[in-house]
Design brief:
- With 348 residues, the protein is of the alpha/beta class.
- It has eight helices and 18 strands.
- Strand 5 and strand 6 form a beta hairpin.
């Protein structure tokens, strides 16, 4: 084995970014994903810009995929599930299994785990009636439908008059076991609402929120311009429940006003739930295989912020949303910092 072979587990935007960064500095990269297609969630989102780019970051994924697939220092292996890992004299020997149950191994001097997150399962938030009533979708469904159909207008009936977004679904106080902020819901809702406004200037758009978080530069100004210029109505408070009224053919949302404490009922044609992120489904299994620690929210634990992505195991690093909620740009930035740390480690 050469002295700088790196195995990257997970081909989402963090794994792709890490692969490119390492391959550019001469490392031989093995990028392994359990799915048949690489790209992760970021590759499934729609462009939120019509006339102008709205800086949602979704187009970074196809760009990175193209570069990875054409890089001579990167070998991609898809459809492989990790089974075990052994230490060797100069690194690790990791064994995988394909769908047919056949085993194969890869040897590497360092490993970057970039296995990502899982979107919150909105069927568990029973009060919102997701998958029980029609007219209620998650923001993830919305991303995929617009991407598939090419526009909001093509994805939904033409007679839509009123739309609501419900923020923080499955995050913060909505789900006590997971009371952290998803760090992306406010950003993607404002951009989605803005896209819908561009396509349907007459539609009424309400956003039910507890607190609007801004993690990116310029977000506050962007959000304020959406409120004033794009007529998006922000309503403070979390709806208690939503359900479909078959005679009215509307989704009804019951909401307690934070202003006067009264319960109000609102009618909508469509409701979108801004779901957050949970640790990836394989996180505990992978932590067991590599003997990695998890943090208090059950994502992979990083040693400290001065040592990006380093774990308690020498030679094993973690990057992107497998360490906690991040947006695409932040996942890429983190993966780049982690890769520089891997390069330092390989030099030593
Ligand atoms: C509804 C929703 C909408 C969003 N919209 C935006 C947006 O508009 N803009 C934005 O910036 N961010 C958005 N985000 C956040 C964005 O999805 C993440 O920042 C990004 O996907 C993180 O990339 P990642 O590579 O860390 O993880 P992932 O995208 O989860 O990729 C992880 C990869 O690892 C693979 N993997 C998992 N387990 C294994 C295993 N055991 N072995 C091998 N491979 C494995 C997966 O198959 C996947 O390919 C949104 C999030 C949600 C929930
Ligand atoms: S960043 Fe988002 S809005 Fe801008 S071009 Fe890319 S996908 Fe479209
Ligand atoms: S980013 Fe916004 S929607 Fe997501 S949990 Fe934080 S405040 Fe709620």
């Amino acid at each position: 084995m050469g002295k700088d072979n790196v195995l990257i587990l997970g081909g989402g935007i963090a794994g792709l970014t890490s692969a490119l960064e390492l391959a550019e500095t001469g490392s031989q990269v093995f990028l392994v994903d359990k799915e048949a297609e690489i790209g992760g969630y970021a590759a499934q989102y729609c462009c939120k810009g019509l006339e102008l780019c709205e800086k949602c970051g979704a187009c970074f994924a196809p760009q990175a995929l193209d570069q990875v697939n054409n890089h001579s220092n990167i070998s991609v292996f898809s459809g492989l599930q990790i089974k075990s890992s052994q230490s060797t004299d100069d690194g690790f020997k990791v064994t995988f299994e394909n769908e047919q149950g056949e085993e194969s191994s890869l040897e590497a001097n360092a490993i970057v785990v970039a296995t990502g997150f899982t979107p919150v399962d909105a069927t568990k938030q029973l009060a919102y009636g997701y998958k029980v009533y029609q007219g209620i979708y998650t923001a993830y469904d919305l991303e995929q439908l617009i991407r598939e159909k090419g526009s909001f207008k093509n994805a939904f009936p033409s007679d839509v008059e009123k739309i609501a977004f419900i923020q923080c679904v499955g995050s913060r106080s909505d789900y006590p076991e997971q009371d952290y902020c998803c760090r992306v819901g406010c950003m993607y809702t404002v951009r989605m609402a803005s896209l819908i406004r561009e396509e349907l200037p007459e539609v009424a758009l309400d956003v039910f929120y507890m607190d609007l978080q801004s993690f990116g530069k310029g977000f506050v100004e962007y959000k304020n311009s959406c409120i004033t210029d794009k007529n998006i109505n922000f309503i403070l408070g979390r709806p208690a429940k939503s359900f479909y009224h078959p005679l009215k053919k509307k989704v009804l949302i019951q909401h307690e006003s934070t202003v006067d404490g009264e319960i109000y009922e609102h009618e909508y044609d469509l409701v979108f739930l801004a779901i957050g992120s949970q640790p990836g489904v394989d996180t505990k299994n992978i932590a067991g295989i590599f003997n990695l620690d998890l943090n208090e929210d059950n994502f992979f634990k990083c040693e400290n912020s001065f040592n990006p992505g380093a774990t308690s195991q020498k030679g094993i690093f973690v990057a992107g949303t497998c360490t906690g909620p991040r947006d695409i740009a932040d996942s890429m930035q983190h993966a780049k910092a982690v890769s520089l740390n891997v390069i330092d480690y390989l030099k030593k």
